[in-house]
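quick one before i forget lol
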Amino acid sequence: ALRRGPCVIFLCGAPGCGKSYLTKKLRAKYGNQITVISNDLQDGLYFIRRGEVVFAPTDNPRGTFNGKLFGEALAAVDRQVDEVLYNITQKQNQITNEQPQRTNKFSSWLSALFPLPPAGPEPQHDILVFDDTNTLWKDFVSKVRRAIATKVIPVENIAWFVFDQHLPQPEETTFLINRNKHRAAEFKKLLSQTEQEGGDVHTLCPSDGKVVPDDKIGTFVHRLRTLFFETKQPSGTPLKGAKLDKPVAAACSLKTRLMGVVNSVKKTVQNDFAEMTGAHMSPPVDNWPLQLVHWDTEYVLKTVQEHSVPELVVWNGLFFDVGDQKKLLGLARDEWGYVLENKSCDHVTLQFFGGRRKSGYEITDDELHWLGREVKISIFAKSASNSTQAFQVELLDYDFPFKADRVEHVTVATAPHVPPKRAGDDLAQRSIPLKDGEHTFYPRFGLKAVLAKSKESATVLELPGGRPDY
């Protein structure tokens, strides 16, 4: 049956297959109904310098990969995802005029793992498109989990659109390598023309001119076919999703809407085939390579849950909800008159373990007892530093068994390039009483852990079925 409501779409394919080209057409046709999120579109990840496209994480004399810089770009993606999902949730709640209900324990757990972020701009979209390669579960599992956790996006409304020309794998790879080079050459022409005409090159999208190494493209093709097809040579073989579940009406309806745009760009793709592959390949020009995969709901939930089990506990602490975070920022403005650039007012670190604990065997009984519970605290003093803003905390629940390794505090914000951990040191050296006396808050006790399989960091406030069983 048709499931009304927002849809989440993952575009899946190797570089050069046409994902970004399609998203531009979708934006042109559907306007603010569609929101497109991509790693490549993050500010500063790609930029133009002296007529060339530069990938920031490798922009150094040795060309080595800067993982920290790339991680910052991915963190920006996460913030964007959270904001868009929050806006979609707000819009759907207004439409239904009721708050979503928790339908099962797993949904409740997802909400605890990933609380909704603060409100953003007025929502204007009902389709969220992720334009990345998406050739492994770990590429998109956290986004699926957060979409489900909103409780307004049914699993049936999450779909994967797979780009594959159905050529033998070596020929498929060669086609995409040539198309990627052709795309980069066309972007360079456009860049040169823009400069000659005195235009602003910053209006161009630098990632349109990126060149992906040939071996990387081959790897993406292999991963795509391993994940989505019954065999690695997909000609004549079904998509894995086709045998698991019939595409629901919502997804079919969405595909119909998308195919209207697909057909409008089909001729361009066919011309690319003729130019890129040569006469000896005879590509299937009547078969546009976009196909729908809609996995069985039970399979999606099971796979997401497998990627959501905490594997490694890094530290435990107290976590503030969105409302309290806003209050803390307001209190900081009252106390300092401003808030520093890098905001991080979401927790109080208590005990830091690093990589010394495995959650499956070493979560203590006290931690299980307090997990997700509110703890009464008092905020009574602030740091005196110009580079950090932090509040000193007193724990008021006297039966609460956990104490911080150093002075208990919540870091509100820091200046650029100043690590948050500096705030605790600043408070230990000198603190100043708050202007209006003490303020009481009730954060929840939880764990910061690395999740199994996906290896992403997550805040765990609830465990389904208690202690994990490995």
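fyi The two ends are 37 Å apart (CA to CA).
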